Amino acid sequence: MDLDFNNKTVIITGGTRGIGKSLALVFNEAGANVIITGTKKLDDINLDLLKNNSSIQYYQLDFSSDESVKQFIHLVNELDRVDVLINNAGVNKIDTISEISIDDWDWMNTINLKGPFLLTQVVSEIMKKQKSGKIINIASIFSVISKVKRAVYSATKWGLIGFTKAVALELAPFNIQVNAVSPGFVDTELTRRILGPVKIKQMVKSIPQGRMAQPNEIAKVVIFLCSDQNTYITGQNIVVDGGFTCA
Q: Average pLDDT of 30-48?
């Protein structure tokens, strides 16, 4: 199967760690020119990803800062083309509906939902002129199921699926495929920090495959959806969870 991304430009938000970092590596290995974002200034990060791969560029993008968003959108508009946009940046905070603060509600909605909207809005105009493109929104299994203390997170991820489907319909006439990928429990720093070792051990028992996913297992699904092999899948939410939501 040909997954050649030579001369293609790929934008990945939240690309410094976890799933985002794996995405950057997979697309880089396939020959793409990769642009990744993170919330820190370039001088404040130390990424082997950047040292070893000259075709990966890093730009600061903080969706909670209007100025940061404005600067990045200006950069995107200066690009000759954008072949792939992956809205991967996301945040989560576990709290009960009675205790979650308005600030946390606004923060999660800004990063998880408003961010993808803003980038999709500008990138889709570029893709329409090209008459080609792929957009992937990284959602979560909590876009199809939920759990206590996930009210805000689920709201953002369910919203992201609705956004995905609506945008897919709008962009289909322009040969642009828009899909969501919803990972289950992935072995990342964020998962380990939020759940902790005891809850992870308990949770793994409920996954039919008996383990968490590795970040590159999510990346492999995404790169197929973004490749020339995908010409007809659009408006879908692909759940990658080891069978968790079926159990």
A: 87
